Amino acid sequence: MAMDSLVDWAGEERLVRIRAGSVTLEGNLSLPQGACGVVLFAHGSGSSRHSPRNRYVAQILNQAKLATLLVDLLTLDEEAIDLRTAHLRFDINLLAGRLITATDWLTQYPDTRNLQVGYFGASTGAGAALVAAAERPQVVGAVVSRGGRPDLAGSALARVQAPTLLIVGGNDFMVIELNREALTQLRCDKRLVIIPGATHLFEEPGALNEVARLAREWFEHYLSQEPARQSI
Q: Which of 15, 105, 111, 129: CA 20 to 30 A from 197?
């Protein structure tokens, strides 16, 4: 793993740059005093670390003493390609590999290396998060999926050890079925929550608030437990 990184201060957030092979990933790290865990966000189709929905959830987690890292898993050039082709957002192996690199960075960065890691995945990012969780079972302590595509994790689902919460909108009918099928393949502590009346982006009044509440409670419960971390 490349550990080259640059950390800048910008208000309460730190801009971080993480080397991932031949590219550099950019992210925003928020680290509340006395943080009991750190949640790494895996953004979904056509989204970025500036997603207002994920930033809102991150703020709620920060208020609960959970650090957050919102990182772009695609570079600006790759995002431009993906806007035309929509292919890279479905390259789960690529996204999971970069998520693992960011995870390994967190385990070595001085201010987060003692914190257990959680994943918050949205859309296709949820599939990548579950693949990464299967590859880092002693580091990743919890996974939350928002309107996610856990089915894209394929055979990795059966190897996930981290407790996993799947949150789906009640009107997101196709995604509900994909999540139900994925739930049967998970062998970890797991739960599927369907939010009545919500669509894929949880834009309805109160829907995103409920997502944030559920995620906060899940991460508070599981990331406060002492991990048995292996060296990487």
A: 129
